[in-house]
Design brief:
By secondary structure, this protein is mainly α. The protein has one domain. Helix content is 72%, strand content 2%. The chain has eleven helices and two strands; from the N terminus they run αααααααβααβαα. It has helices at residues 2-14, 25-30, 35-59, 68-90, 92-98, 109-117, 124-154, 162-165, 167-170, 184-187, 189-227, and strands spanning 156-157, 174-175. Strands 1-2 form a two-stranded antiparallel sheet. Helix 4 (68-90) crosses helix 6 (109-117) and helix 7 crosses helix 11. The longest helix has 39 residues, at 189-227.
Length: 228
């Protein structure tokens, strides 16, 4: 159980691929101009992470080391193709909005990194947990950035949610500011970089404050034998 908790904490916080490793930033910055786009890409990326980690872990003993990277890419591409076809069939309007960033999941370094660094060396259950938590951690950053940019840029929340949630999504849209003219920079690439920078800075601030009491405690523990 402790191992699963450690894997989960790494995926959600300690080794968050968007905030620590800074991987997969191209789609993260490009599609997060509203929450709906962020949720859609987060779900797609999480599915591919879980499925590719599971497949790599199950077949890791049958893949020669010399060709492991091409095989991993092929597996990832297969699951991305599944996502691509599902979106074209059932969520076509959202598929048109996300555009090239759905197929580009294949080149997301975070997915290949987890396959190589973790799934190829661990059992299938741990690999599934790792893929799920990495995907959830990545999706949380997507949604946070989407919330910030949509509120500041458009003054709304869950705009176009009907594209993924159907009729229920129409009732989810919230207009926070009446007659709001919007802030264009929040919807443009500079707004994405500024928003991500603020989120990374907040995480670093929280980490630094958590490290101070631990450092003090370690210093006291080191000095106690000397004073005795």
């Amino acid at each position: 159980m402790q191992e699963y908790l450690k894997i989960s904490k790494n995926g959600l916080w300690n080794n968050n691929q968007a905030l620590v490793a800074l991987l997969g930033l191209c789609p993260l910055l490009a599609v997060t101009n509203n929450v709906t786009n962020a949720i859609s890409l987060g779900l797609a990326t999480t599915f591919v992470l879980v499925a590719s980690n599971l497949s790599v872990s199950l077949f890791r003993n049958h893949i020669r080391k010399e060709v492991r990277i091409p095989i991993f890419v092929l597996l990832i591409a297969s699951f991305v193709t599944i996502v691509d076809l599902i979106m074209q069939s059932f969520f076509y309007d959202m598929y048109l909005i996300l555009g090239i960033f759905v197929p580009l999941i294949v080149t997301n370094c975070a997915i290949l990194a987890r396959a190589e660094a973790f799934a190829s060396k661990n059992t299938w259950d741990k690999s599934v947990i790792d893929g799920l938590m990495m995907g959830v951690g990545f999706s949380i950053v997507l949604v946070l950035l989407g919330v910030m940019r949509e509120i500041i840029g458009s003054g709304t929340l869950f705009d176009q949610a009907d594209l993924i949630f159907g009729d229920l999504g129409s009732s989810l849209k919230v207009t926070l500011f009446d007659q709001y003219q919007g802030t264009l920079i929040a919807l443009l690439p500079p707004g994405a970089f500024i928003g991500l920078g603020l989120i990374v800075a907040l995480k670093n601030l929280i980490d630094s404050r958590q490290m101070v009491p631990q450092t003090v405690a370690n210093s006291k523990a080191t000095l106690e034998p000397q004073t005795n």
